[in-house]
Amino acid sequence: MTITELIDEYNLSDDDIRWSLSMRIAESLAIILNEEGVPAVARKLWSGEIGDELYDIVERWIRVRGENLERTILDEGHMRDELSQMSVDAINRRQN
User: Fold this and answer.
1) Where are the domains of the chain?
2) Closest CA to 89 of 20, 30, 21, 9
3) Which of 10, 71, 79, 86 could be bridged to 20 by S-S, CB 3.0 to 4.6 A?
4) How far is it, in rounded angstroms, from Cα 69 to Cα 79?
5) Cα diameter, the chain
6) Cβ neighbours of residue 84 under 8 Å, at least 6 residues apart?
């Protein structure tokens, strides 16, 4: 299956994917904050790294995952696990 077919199968919108990816970034910032403190988070924000991650986040994620599936670097089972988590994130967002 292609990445687009898998996304459609899980009924995920670009907004759902963007939310889930944003959750991952927020979780990584929380870990940095907990382990290294505010200056480390500030450095990450100041460096522009987060901005780079956010730029075309959905399109880039779809492109990279699609290429990895085609080249069998990523198997469909792993992709389904990731899409399942995105579905859970989307459901939780709608309930809150």
Assistant:
1) 3-87
2) 20
3) 86
4) 8
5) 44
6) 10
Alpha helices in 12-75 (DSSP H): 14-36, 38-46, 49-54, 57-70
Q: How many of the other CB atoms lie within 10 Å of CB of 63? A: 12
CB distance 86 to 24 below 8 Å: no
Are 10 and 79 in contact by the 8 Å Cβ rule? The answer is no
Predicted TM-score (pTM) above 0.90: no
Residue recorded with tokens 């670009």: 14
Q: Which two tokens stand for residue 34?
A: 């907990």
